[in-house]
């Protein structure tokens, strides 16, 4: 519903749609005043990927992807889902200025993927949902890495180091629930300012 409403709004009242997303709101005294796009990209998506990460952690430790061979399948699928669209884009745009955008079609939108699955197959097996989450997330991580290292003007290495440190804060012990899930918040939030 939200997607359909946004498409209609953008196509029939494009100026007001753009104006809405360009409007800044928040708390200036706390340094939290941003436009709508940044609130979605830097705030809401952080929460979304944190929740997705918790679901994947559960599936990888005691769910449908707990076996290494089962976990390898979505990783291979995600690599293919990133490489094939990039190769097709590269082949079609070869010799034009647009070829430099080959990294853009690599990304999968996990939010849409999860939403479509919930809409089309609300009673889908848990294994299917876990597989889709893993494919979409790994694919998205690969695309973010390509965009960060291939397209960014510069990386903030301090934030990148903080994200890496947070990611490895609990090695395999997390599989035995030795780490609190809430300790993952720094790792979820820190990649945002890296590029």
TrEMBL record:
PANTHER family: NA(+)_H(+) ANTIPORTER NHAA (PTHR30341:SF0), SODIUM ION/PROTON ANTIPORTER NHAA-RELATED (PTHR30341). InterPro entries: Na/H_antiporter_dom_sf, NhaA. It comes from the Bacteria. The chain crosses the membrane at residues 39-56, 71-94, 100-120, 132-152. One of its GO terms (molecular function) is sodium:proton antiporter activity. It holds the Pfam family Na_H_antiport_1. This is Na+/H+ antiporter NhaA. The keyword Ion transport applies. It is found in: Cell inner membrane. One of its GO terms (cellular component) is plasma membrane. GO terms for biological process: regulation of pH.
């Amino acid at each position: 519903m939200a997607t359909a409403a946004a498409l209609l709004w953008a196509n029939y009242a494009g100026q007001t749609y753009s104006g809405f997303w360009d409007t800044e709101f928040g708390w200036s005294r706390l340094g939290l005043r941003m436009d709508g796009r940044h609130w979605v990209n830097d705030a809401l998506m952080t929460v979304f990927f944190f929740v997705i990460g918790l679901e994947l952690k559960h599936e990888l430790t005691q769910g449908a992807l707990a076996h290494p061979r089962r976990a390898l399948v979505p990783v291979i699928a995600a690599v293919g889902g990133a490489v094939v669209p990039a190769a097709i884009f590269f082949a079609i745009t070869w010799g034009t200025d647009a070829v430099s955008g080959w990294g853009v079609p690599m990304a999968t939108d996990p939010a849409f993927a999860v939403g479509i699955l919930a809409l089309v197959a609300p009673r889908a097996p848990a294994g299917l949902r876990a597989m889709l989450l893993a494919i979409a997330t790994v694919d998205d991580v690969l695309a973010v890495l390509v965009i960060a290292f291939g397209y960014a003007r510069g990386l903030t290495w301090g934030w990148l180091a903080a994200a890496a440190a947070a990611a490895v804060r609990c090695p395999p012990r997390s599989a035995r629930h030795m780490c609190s899930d809430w300790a993952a918040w720094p790792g979820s939030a820190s990649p945002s300012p890296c590029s």
